[in-house]
Specification:
It contains twelve helices and twelve strands. The strands form three sheets. The chain has a seven-stranded mixed β-sheet with strand order 2-8-7-6-5-3-4, sandwiched between helices. The chain has a three-stranded antiparallel β-sheet with strand order 9-12-11. The radius of gyration is 21 Å and the shape is globular. It has 402 residues and is α/β, with parallel strands linked by helices. 39% of the residues lie in helices and 12% in strands. The structure holds pyridoxal-5'-phosphate (PLP).
Length: 402
Protein backbone atom coordinates (compact mmCIF):
# COMPACT_ATOMS: atom_id res chain seq x y z
CA UNK A 1 0.00 0.00 0.00
CA UNK A 2 1.50 3.40 -0.90
CA UNK A 3 1.62 5.78 2.05
CA UNK A 4 0.46 9.36 1.61
CA UNK A 5 3.56 11.48 2.05
CA UNK A 6 4.26 14.83 0.46
CA UNK A 7 7.06 14.28 -2.01
CA UNK A 8 9.79 16.86 -2.42
CA UNK A 9 10.14 17.78 -6.10
CA UNK A 10 12.64 15.46 -7.76
CA UNK A 11 13.09 17.66 -10.78
CA UNK A 12 14.62 21.07 -11.36
CA UNK A 13 11.81 21.84 -13.80
CA UNK A 14 8.91 23.72 -12.37
CA UNK A 15 5.55 22.19 -13.29
CA UNK A 16 3.85 24.65 -15.60
CA UNK A 17 0.20 23.64 -15.59
CA UNK A 18 -2.31 25.14 -17.98
CA UNK A 19 -4.27 27.96 -16.32
CA UNK A 20 -7.52 26.13 -16.81
CA UNK A 21 -6.42 23.42 -14.35
CA UNK A 22 -6.88 25.90 -11.51
CA UNK A 23 -10.58 26.01 -12.43
CA UNK A 24 -11.14 22.26 -12.44
CA UNK A 25 -13.07 21.07 -9.39
CA UNK A 26 -13.44 17.57 -8.02
CA UNK A 27 -15.79 15.13 -6.36
CA UNK A 28 -15.20 15.22 -2.60
CA UNK A 29 -16.67 11.75 -2.13
CA UNK A 30 -13.39 10.24 -3.29
CA UNK A 31 -11.37 12.44 -0.92
CA UNK A 32 -13.55 11.52 2.05
CA UNK A 33 -13.25 7.87 1.08
CA UNK A 34 -9.44 8.17 1.14
CA UNK A 35 -9.53 9.89 4.52
CA UNK A 36 -11.86 7.20 5.87
CA UNK A 37 -9.55 4.46 4.56
CA UNK A 38 -6.56 6.15 6.22
CA UNK A 39 -8.47 6.11 9.55
CA UNK A 40 -9.27 2.43 9.00
CA UNK A 41 -5.60 1.70 8.53
CA UNK A 42 -5.06 3.22 11.98
CA UNK A 43 -7.52 0.64 13.33
CA UNK A 44 -10.66 2.83 13.50
CA UNK A 45 -14.04 1.36 12.48
CA UNK A 46 -15.81 3.49 9.88
CA UNK A 47 -19.31 3.10 8.44
CA UNK A 48 -19.16 4.23 4.83
CA UNK A 49 -22.10 6.42 3.90
CA UNK A 50 -20.14 8.78 1.70
CA UNK A 51 -19.81 7.15 -1.67
CA UNK A 52 -22.62 7.06 -4.22
CA UNK A 53 -22.58 3.50 -5.41
CA UNK A 54 -24.91 0.56 -4.86
CA UNK A 55 -23.45 -1.96 -2.41
CA UNK A 56 -25.03 -4.83 -4.36
CA UNK A 57 -23.20 -7.09 -6.80
CA UNK A 58 -23.81 -6.65 -10.51
CA UNK A 59 -26.62 -9.09 -11.47
CA UNK A 60 -25.12 -12.48 -12.32
CA UNK A 61 -26.69 -12.66 -15.81
CA UNK A 62 -24.77 -9.48 -16.70
CA UNK A 63 -21.50 -10.80 -15.25
CA UNK A 64 -21.95 -14.07 -17.16
CA UNK A 65 -22.58 -12.17 -20.38
CA UNK A 66 -19.31 -10.26 -19.94
CA UNK A 67 -17.32 -13.42 -19.16
CA UNK A 68 -18.78 -15.14 -22.18
CA UNK A 69 -18.04 -12.07 -24.35
CA UNK A 70 -14.40 -12.15 -23.22
CA UNK A 71 -14.14 -15.82 -24.19
CA UNK A 72 -15.73 -15.05 -27.53
CA UNK A 73 -13.09 -12.44 -28.31
CA UNK A 74 -14.90 -9.16 -27.64
CA UNK A 75 -11.56 -7.76 -26.62
CA UNK A 76 -10.84 -5.39 -29.49
CA UNK A 77 -11.61 -1.81 -30.40
CA UNK A 78 -15.19 -1.18 -31.44
CA UNK A 79 -16.95 1.77 -33.08
CA UNK A 80 -16.48 5.04 -31.13
CA UNK A 81 -20.23 5.59 -30.77
CA UNK A 82 -20.76 2.10 -29.33
CA UNK A 83 -21.60 -1.37 -30.62
CA UNK A 84 -24.61 -1.27 -32.96
CA UNK A 85 -26.48 -3.89 -30.87
CA UNK A 86 -26.10 -1.90 -27.69
CA UNK A 87 -27.03 1.38 -29.36
CA UNK A 88 -30.14 -0.30 -30.69
CA UNK A 89 -31.01 -1.78 -27.27
CA UNK A 90 -30.58 1.67 -25.68
CA UNK A 91 -32.70 3.35 -28.36
CA UNK A 92 -35.48 0.82 -27.70
CA UNK A 93 -35.17 1.24 -23.92
CA UNK A 94 -35.31 5.03 -24.11
CA UNK A 95 -38.18 4.99 -26.62
CA UNK A 96 -40.15 2.72 -24.30
CA UNK A 97 -39.38 4.40 -20.98
CA UNK A 98 -39.53 8.04 -22.14
CA UNK A 99 -42.37 7.59 -24.58
CA UNK A 100 -40.50 9.23 -27.43
CA UNK A 101 -39.22 7.52 -30.56
CA UNK A 102 -35.39 7.26 -30.59
CA UNK A 103 -33.14 5.59 -33.11
CA UNK A 104 -29.69 4.08 -32.60
CA UNK A 105 -27.97 6.91 -34.47
CA UNK A 106 -29.06 9.20 -31.63
CA UNK A 107 -27.20 7.10 -29.06
CA UNK A 108 -23.55 7.47 -28.02
CA UNK A 109 -22.15 4.91 -25.59
CA UNK A 110 -19.41 6.24 -23.30
CA UNK A 111 -17.41 4.98 -20.29
CA UNK A 112 -19.90 5.98 -17.54
CA UNK A 113 -22.46 8.73 -17.32
CA UNK A 114 -19.85 11.34 -16.46
CA UNK A 115 -18.27 11.66 -19.91
CA UNK A 116 -21.63 12.81 -21.28
CA UNK A 117 -21.42 15.80 -18.92
CA UNK A 118 -17.82 16.45 -19.98
CA UNK A 119 -18.44 16.01 -23.70
CA UNK A 120 -21.73 17.93 -23.84
CA UNK A 121 -20.17 20.97 -22.20
CA UNK A 122 -17.06 20.73 -24.38
CA UNK A 123 -19.12 20.38 -27.52
CA UNK A 124 -21.73 23.05 -26.85
CA UNK A 125 -20.41 25.74 -24.55
CA UNK A 126 -17.94 28.49 -25.38
CA UNK A 127 -15.97 30.70 -23.01
CA UNK A 128 -18.28 33.40 -21.67
CA UNK A 129 -21.47 31.44 -22.34
CA UNK A 130 -23.74 30.80 -19.40
CA UNK A 131 -24.81 27.42 -18.10
CA UNK A 132 -27.57 27.06 -15.51
CA UNK A 133 -27.12 24.08 -13.18
CA UNK A 134 -28.66 22.79 -9.94
CA UNK A 135 -27.03 23.75 -6.65
CA UNK A 136 -26.73 21.76 -4.47
CA UNK A 137 -25.97 19.38 -7.31
CA UNK A 138 -23.54 16.87 -8.71
CA UNK A 139 -20.20 18.75 -8.41
CA UNK A 140 -18.94 17.80 -11.84
CA UNK A 141 -21.38 20.20 -13.54
CA UNK A 142 -19.88 23.27 -11.89
CA UNK A 143 -16.36 21.92 -12.25
CA UNK A 144 -16.70 21.42 -16.00
CA UNK A 145 -18.47 24.72 -16.62
CA UNK A 146 -15.67 26.58 -14.85
CA UNK A 147 -12.99 24.49 -16.51
CA UNK A 148 -13.96 25.56 -19.98
CA UNK A 149 -14.24 29.20 -18.93
CA UNK A 150 -18.01 29.55 -19.12
CA UNK A 151 -20.11 31.27 -16.47
CA UNK A 152 -21.65 28.88 -13.96
CA UNK A 153 -25.14 30.11 -13.02
CA UNK A 154 -26.51 28.11 -10.08
CA UNK A 155 -30.20 27.54 -9.59
CA UNK A 156 -30.86 26.94 -5.93
CA UNK A 157 -32.77 23.81 -5.00
CA UNK A 158 -34.86 24.68 -2.00
CA UNK A 159 -35.81 22.36 0.81
CA UNK A 160 -39.20 24.03 1.22
CA UNK A 161 -39.98 23.09 -2.40
CA UNK A 162 -38.93 19.49 -1.71
CA UNK A 163 -35.67 20.29 -3.48
CA UNK A 164 -37.44 21.12 -6.72
CA UNK A 165 -36.75 24.13 -8.93
CA UNK A 166 -38.36 27.50 -8.39
CA UNK A 167 -39.60 28.20 -11.89
CA UNK A 168 -39.67 31.98 -11.45
CA UNK A 169 -36.06 31.84 -10.32
CA UNK A 170 -35.14 29.74 -13.34
CA UNK A 171 -36.89 32.24 -15.55
CA UNK A 172 -34.92 35.11 -14.02
CA UNK A 173 -31.61 33.31 -14.59
CA UNK A 174 -32.09 32.70 -18.31
CA UNK A 175 -30.34 35.30 -20.42
CA UNK A 176 -29.27 35.82 -24.02
CA UNK A 177 -26.00 34.11 -23.11
CA UNK A 178 -27.60 30.95 -21.72
CA UNK A 179 -26.41 28.07 -23.85
CA UNK A 180 -27.26 25.10 -21.68
CA UNK A 181 -29.56 24.26 -18.77
CA UNK A 182 -28.68 21.21 -16.69
CA UNK A 183 -31.42 19.39 -14.82
CA UNK A 184 -31.11 16.21 -12.78
CA UNK A 185 -33.98 14.02 -11.64
CA UNK A 186 -33.95 11.97 -9.44
CA UNK A 187 -31.41 14.27 -7.93
CA UNK A 188 -28.05 13.83 -6.30
CA UNK A 189 -27.61 14.87 -3.44
CA UNK A 190 -31.16 15.76 -2.33
CA UNK A 191 -33.21 12.83 -3.63
CA UNK A 192 -35.61 15.37 -5.16
CA UNK A 193 -37.69 14.25 -8.14
CA UNK A 194 -39.15 16.56 -10.76
CA UNK A 195 -42.83 15.82 -11.34
CA UNK A 196 -44.46 15.91 -14.76
CA UNK A 197 -45.71 19.43 -13.94
CA UNK A 198 -42.20 20.54 -12.89
CA UNK A 199 -40.74 19.25 -16.15
CA UNK A 200 -43.51 20.98 -18.11
CA UNK A 201 -42.84 24.22 -16.27
CA UNK A 202 -39.11 24.04 -17.08
CA UNK A 203 -40.00 23.46 -20.73
CA UNK A 204 -42.45 26.37 -20.69
CA UNK A 205 -39.88 28.73 -19.23
CA UNK A 206 -37.31 27.78 -21.86
CA UNK A 207 -40.03 28.14 -24.47
CA UNK A 208 -38.78 28.21 -28.03
CA UNK A 209 -35.35 29.66 -27.17
CA UNK A 210 -32.44 27.88 -28.76
CA UNK A 211 -31.11 26.53 -25.46
CA UNK A 212 -30.00 22.93 -24.99
CA UNK A 213 -30.97 20.92 -21.92
CA UNK A 214 -28.69 18.32 -20.41
CA UNK A 215 -31.09 16.03 -18.58
CA UNK A 216 -29.15 13.86 -16.17
CA UNK A 217 -31.38 10.85 -15.60
CA UNK A 218 -28.78 8.45 -14.18
CA UNK A 219 -31.15 7.54 -11.29
CA UNK A 220 -34.21 7.14 -13.55
CA UNK A 221 -34.98 3.62 -12.26
CA UNK A 222 -34.59 4.56 -8.59
CA UNK A 223 -37.89 6.24 -7.81
CA UNK A 224 -39.91 5.63 -4.64
CA UNK A 225 -42.97 7.76 -5.28
CA UNK A 226 -44.62 8.59 -8.58
CA UNK A 227 -42.79 7.96 -11.83
CA UNK A 228 -39.90 9.27 -13.85
CA UNK A 229 -40.47 12.06 -16.36
CA UNK A 230 -38.02 13.29 -18.95
CA UNK A 231 -38.00 16.67 -20.65
CA UNK A 232 -37.07 14.77 -23.79
CA UNK A 233 -40.70 13.67 -24.10
CA UNK A 234 -42.09 17.21 -23.99
CA UNK A 235 -43.15 18.18 -27.53
CA UNK A 236 -40.52 20.39 -29.13
CA UNK A 237 -37.76 19.37 -26.73
CA UNK A 238 -36.41 16.19 -28.26
CA UNK A 239 -33.92 18.02 -30.45
CA UNK A 240 -32.89 20.32 -27.63
CA UNK A 241 -32.30 17.56 -25.06
CA UNK A 242 -29.26 15.46 -24.28
CA UNK A 243 -30.47 12.61 -22.13
CA UNK A 244 -27.82 11.10 -19.86
CA UNK A 245 -28.40 7.65 -18.39
CA UNK A 246 -26.32 4.57 -17.82
CA UNK A 247 -25.67 1.30 -16.07
CA UNK A 248 -23.76 2.39 -12.94
CA UNK A 249 -26.65 2.95 -10.57
CA UNK A 250 -29.47 0.88 -12.11
CA UNK A 251 -27.49 -2.35 -12.45
CA UNK A 252 -24.83 -1.78 -9.75
CA UNK A 253 -22.14 -1.46 -12.41
CA UNK A 254 -20.18 1.59 -11.23
CA UNK A 255 -16.80 -0.03 -11.83
CA UNK A 256 -17.64 -1.21 -15.33
CA UNK A 257 -17.70 2.33 -16.66
CA UNK A 258 -20.56 2.38 -19.10
CA UNK A 259 -23.18 5.02 -19.73
CA UNK A 260 -24.80 6.80 -22.65
CA UNK A 261 -26.20 9.96 -24.08
CA UNK A 262 -29.21 10.23 -26.37
CA UNK A 263 -29.29 13.33 -28.57
CA UNK A 264 -30.03 14.60 -32.06
CA UNK A 265 -27.85 12.80 -34.64
CA UNK A 266 -25.92 15.91 -35.72
CA UNK A 267 -24.76 16.44 -32.13
CA UNK A 268 -24.15 12.69 -31.67
CA UNK A 269 -21.57 12.90 -34.47
CA UNK A 270 -19.61 15.51 -32.54
CA UNK A 271 -19.84 13.70 -29.20
CA UNK A 272 -18.61 10.59 -31.04
CA UNK A 273 -15.66 12.60 -32.34
CA UNK A 274 -14.82 13.54 -28.75
CA UNK A 275 -14.92 9.82 -27.94
CA UNK A 276 -12.55 9.07 -30.83
CA UNK A 277 -10.19 11.74 -29.51
CA UNK A 278 -10.29 10.59 -25.89
CA UNK A 279 -11.24 6.95 -25.28
CA UNK A 280 -11.53 5.55 -28.83
CA UNK A 281 -14.44 3.45 -27.60
CA UNK A 282 -16.08 1.99 -24.50
CA UNK A 283 -14.73 -1.50 -23.64
CA UNK A 284 -16.30 -3.96 -26.06
CA UNK A 285 -17.05 -6.89 -23.74
CA UNK A 286 -18.77 -4.58 -21.25
CA UNK A 287 -21.02 -3.35 -24.04
CA UNK A 288 -22.03 -6.91 -24.89
CA UNK A 289 -22.97 -7.32 -21.21
CA UNK A 290 -24.84 -4.00 -21.45
CA UNK A 291 -27.21 -5.54 -24.00
CA UNK A 292 -27.94 -8.34 -21.52
CA UNK A 293 -28.46 -5.78 -18.73
CA UNK A 294 -31.10 -3.97 -20.79
CA UNK A 295 -32.80 -6.94 -22.41
CA UNK A 296 -32.38 -9.62 -19.74
CA UNK A 297 -34.22 -10.26 -16.49
CA UNK A 298 -34.95 -6.96 -14.67
CA UNK A 299 -35.97 -8.45 -11.31
CA UNK A 300 -32.72 -7.44 -9.59
CA UNK A 301 -33.36 -3.78 -10.50
CA UNK A 302 -36.66 -3.89 -8.64
CA UNK A 303 -35.13 -5.79 -5.71
CA UNK A 304 -32.42 -3.18 -5.31
CA UNK A 305 -34.93 -0.35 -5.58
CA UNK A 306 -37.16 -1.90 -2.90
CA UNK A 307 -34.19 -2.45 -0.60
CA UNK A 308 -33.07 1.17 -0.98
CA UNK A 309 -36.60 2.27 -0.12
CA UNK A 310 -36.63 0.24 3.11
CA UNK A 311 -33.26 1.63 4.11
CA UNK A 312 -34.29 5.18 3.25
CA UNK A 313 -37.37 4.85 5.48
CA UNK A 314 -35.35 3.56 8.41
CA UNK A 315 -32.56 6.09 8.02
CA UNK A 316 -34.77 9.14 7.57
CA UNK A 317 -36.91 8.18 10.58
CA UNK A 318 -33.74 7.66 12.63
CA UNK A 319 -32.21 11.00 11.61
CA UNK A 320 -35.40 12.82 12.52
CA UNK A 321 -35.03 11.50 16.07
CA UNK A 322 -31.55 13.01 16.42
CA UNK A 323 -31.18 16.41 18.08
CA UNK A 324 -30.56 19.18 15.56
CA UNK A 325 -31.31 17.02 12.49
CA UNK A 326 -34.42 17.23 10.34
CA UNK A 327 -34.81 15.29 7.14
CA UNK A 328 -37.33 15.24 4.31
CA UNK A 329 -38.25 11.96 2.71
CA UNK A 330 -36.32 11.76 -0.57
CA UNK A 331 -38.40 10.53 -3.51
CA UNK A 332 -35.61 8.98 -5.53
CA UNK A 333 -31.91 7.98 -5.79
CA UNK A 334 -30.21 6.52 -2.70
CA UNK A 335 -29.26 9.60 -0.75
CA UNK A 336 -30.71 11.43 2.21
CA UNK A 337 -29.97 15.09 2.75
CA UNK A 338 -30.80 16.20 6.28
CA UNK A 339 -30.89 19.81 7.40
CA UNK A 340 -28.41 20.20 10.27
CA UNK A 341 -28.73 23.96 10.88
CA UNK A 342 -30.20 23.42 14.34
CA UNK A 343 -27.05 21.63 15.48
CA UNK A 344 -25.34 25.02 15.36
CA UNK A 345 -22.54 23.46 13.31
CA UNK A 346 -21.48 24.25 9.77
CA UNK A 347 -21.69 21.33 7.35
CA UNK A 348 -17.99 20.66 6.70
CA UNK A 349 -16.80 20.68 10.34
CA UNK A 350 -19.78 18.50 11.26
CA UNK A 351 -19.02 15.97 8.51
CA UNK A 352 -15.35 15.92 9.64
CA UNK A 353 -16.32 15.46 13.28
CA UNK A 354 -18.74 12.63 12.47
CA UNK A 355 -16.00 10.87 10.52
CA UNK A 356 -13.25 11.34 13.08
CA UNK A 357 -15.23 11.09 16.31
CA UNK A 358 -18.32 9.02 15.46
CA UNK A 359 -16.84 6.75 12.79
CA UNK A 360 -19.49 7.70 10.22
CA UNK A 361 -18.32 8.88 6.79
CA UNK A 362 -20.73 11.26 5.08
CA UNK A 363 -20.40 14.33 2.88
CA UNK A 364 -20.81 17.98 3.68
CA UNK A 365 -23.67 19.58 1.75
CA UNK A 366 -21.12 22.10 0.50
CA UNK A 367 -19.45 19.33 -1.53
CA UNK A 368 -22.41 19.94 -3.84
CA UNK A 369 -22.10 23.72 -4.07
CA UNK A 370 -22.48 26.63 -1.71
CA UNK A 371 -26.25 26.26 -1.40
CA UNK A 372 -25.53 22.91 0.27
CA UNK A 373 -24.44 24.71 3.46
CA UNK A 374 -26.62 23.58 6.34
CA UNK A 375 -26.97 20.00 5.06
CA UNK A 376 -25.17 16.66 5.04
CA UNK A 377 -25.45 13.90 2.47
CA UNK A 378 -25.64 10.28 3.50
CA UNK A 379 -25.77 7.44 1.01
CA UNK A 380 -28.02 4.56 2.09
CA UNK A 381 -26.07 2.13 -0.06
CA UNK A 382 -25.11 0.13 3.02
CA UNK A 383 -26.74 -2.64 5.06
CA UNK A 384 -29.63 -1.91 7.43
CA UNK A 385 -27.43 -3.12 10.26
CA UNK A 386 -24.72 -0.58 9.42
CA UNK A 387 -27.26 2.19 8.87
CA UNK A 388 -28.78 1.55 12.31
CA UNK A 389 -25.33 1.46 13.81
CA UNK A 390 -24.48 4.78 12.13
CA UNK A 391 -27.67 6.32 13.58
CA UNK A 392 -26.64 5.20 17.08
CA UNK A 393 -23.15 6.60 16.62
CA UNK A 394 -24.42 9.98 15.37
CA UNK A 395 -26.98 10.13 18.17
CA UNK A 396 -24.34 9.41 20.81
CA UNK A 397 -22.05 12.01 19.27
CA UNK A 398 -24.74 14.71 19.30
CA UNK A 399 -25.56 13.92 22.95
CA UNK A 400 -21.92 14.40 23.86
CA UNK A 401 -21.29 17.47 21.72
CA UNK A 402 -24.44 19.58 21.28
C1 LIG B 1 -26.16 12.95 -10.87
C2 LIG B 1 -25.08 12.07 -11.39
N1 LIG B 1 -24.76 12.10 -12.70
C3 LIG B 1 -23.80 11.34 -13.20
C4 LIG B 1 -23.08 10.47 -12.41
C5 LIG B 1 -21.97 9.68 -13.02
O1 LIG B 1 -22.24 8.34 -13.14
P1 LIG B 1 -21.13 7.33 -13.71
O2 LIG B 1 -20.51 6.67 -12.50
O3 LIG B 1 -21.90 6.39 -14.55
O4 LIG B 1 -20.15 8.11 -14.47
C6 LIG B 1 -23.37 10.40 -11.03
C7 LIG B 1 -22.58 9.52 -10.15
O5 LIG B 1 -22.53 9.66 -8.96
C8 LIG B 1 -24.39 11.22 -10.52
O6 LIG B 1 -24.72 11.20 -9.21
Amino acid sequence: MPSFVTMEPTTQYELRLANRMSRLGTETAFEVLNKARALERQGKKIIHLEIGEPDFDTPSNVVEAAVSALHKGWTHYGPSAGLPDLRQAIAEEVSRTRGVECSSEEVVVVPGGKPIIFFSILALVDEGDEVIYPNPGFPIYESMINYIGARAVPIRLREDRDFGLDINELSSLISDRTKLVIINSPQNPTGGVLSKQDIRAVADVIGDRNIMVLSDEIYSRLIFAGSHHSIMSVPGFKERTILLDGFSKTYAMTGWRMGYGVMRPDLATHITRLMTNSNSCTASFTQVAGVEALRGDQSSVEQMRAEFQTRRDVFVAGLNRIQGFSCRMPKGAFYVFPNIQKTGWKSKPLADALLEQAGVACLSGTSFGHFGEGYLRFSVANSLENLNHALDQINDWTKRNL
